[in-house]
Amino acid sequence: MSSRPLARLRPAQSVALAFLAFIAGGTLLLMLPISTSAPGPAAIGDAFFTATSAVTVTGLSVVDTASYWSGFGEAVILVLCQLGGLGVMTFTAILVLIISGRLGLRRRQAAQAEQGLIAPGEVRSILIGVAILTAIIESLVALVLFLRFLSLGEGFGRALWYGVFHSVTAFNNAGFALFQDNFMSFSDDWVILGALSVAIIAGGLGLPVWSEIIRRRRTHDRVHRFSLHTRLTLIGTAVLLVLGIGLVLLFEWGNPGTLGPMGVGDKILNGGFQGISPRTAGFNSVDYAQMKPESLMITDFLMFIGAGSVSTSGGIKVTTMLVLAIATIASLRGDREVQLLGRRLPSAAIRVALAVTVVFTSLIALGTLLMVSLTEFGLEQSLFEVTSALSTTGLSTGITSSLPVAGDAILIVLMILGRLGPQVLGASLVLRERSASYHYPEERPIVG
């Protein structure tokens, strides 16, 4: 009898329930007196905001992570980031494995589509492979960071903790740092910023891409090409990295508040890091409050897009952007079908991409309007903070800790919607897709 409610739950609904349970559990743990460095427990608002930010792998914080939380509190944040990144990303796939025997063929196929090209029979082996890959990447990055912090004079235990904590938050695109200025004190350190950048990019590729890489590696398949999804993700990632890095360098090269005082090498390093981090990682090596409006707009754009589908990142995702861009080009050319890389895009994929983008844009507009209305901050800062929260990036111009309760509430809602929204909305549209038993006469309105 107890299995019937589980069987009736759609995978997306189960992800949402688990997600909210992680936030509730994290809030309770952070409210324990042992979680703070000062006497007494954390305020419920601070604990709830931090737990939400950690599970949504955002990184926004109303208190200073380095000084407010104790070692136990930092460990709770670390676990929540891992659960929110890798755990929520793969939970639906695990659920498919658990209840696949109770689902009909149509529901199995829908759940498979929701997982991003992973068949139910492959879930176990793929998840094991991804878990191993995650452990390898996080361990290697942690080792590099540990050795670097050790060489900078940190004690063995502190250097090890810095390495482990930041490797996990970087791979999960979480943005939490154990330094009061994030990584601004390491703006000239190629090892630390380089290791973080590798982890950010790896975590942002997504489960479908890594699963395909693992399958090809296991079968030694060198003949068949990668799927369209994987190729789009890799191409889009490369294009956005080059575009983001190039534009940040262009606008900030002479800015005395950011890259201006640095040497050429450090300008390239920090311009590169700030071109990578807005892909929802949330680390910063320069002060965003000093950035030019042009750079903030570019960062808004990068945060809005995010990285790969079914990954640790937020945003509308790279493939969504490319599908819409390609469909737009095809429409402008007058093509009846949308084709690319030797494949034809189904209209359903275009509709889902359009729906996700419209909903995401509407939430940003509404959130910005509310933030401007309910706080003392202007349009530029409010738009940046709202986009950062909804895209689960975690970058800020420094206003997060100064927001009133209403502002905090707006960001909490946006972080939850941003983490679950694109994935759950896309999955729900796939699960609800149906064919009509009749068709009305076609009539085209005037568009444009």
Query: What would you call the shape?
Result: globular
Taking the alpha carbons of the first and last residues, their distance comes to 55 Å
Strand order of the largest sheet: 1-2
Number of domains: 1
| Order of secondary-structure elements | HHHHHHHHHHHHHHEEHHH
The tally of beta strands, per DSSP, is 2
Kindly report the average pLDDT value.
83
* Unreliable sequence segments: 1-9, 95-117
The amount of beta strand, in percent, is: under 5%
What characterizes the major β-sheet? 2 strands, antiparallel
Provide a count of the helices: 17
- Gyration radius, to the nearest Å? 22 Å
Helix content: 55-70%
What does the oligomeric state look like here? single chain
Can I get a quick summary?
The chain is an all-alpha fold and 448 residues long. The chain has helices at 3-8, 11-30, 44-55, 65-68, 71-99, 105-114, 123-151, 156-171, 190-204, 207-219, 228-252, 264-276, 293-305, 318-333, 347-374, 379-390, 405-432; strands spanning 339-340, 343-344. It has a two-stranded antiparallel ribbon.
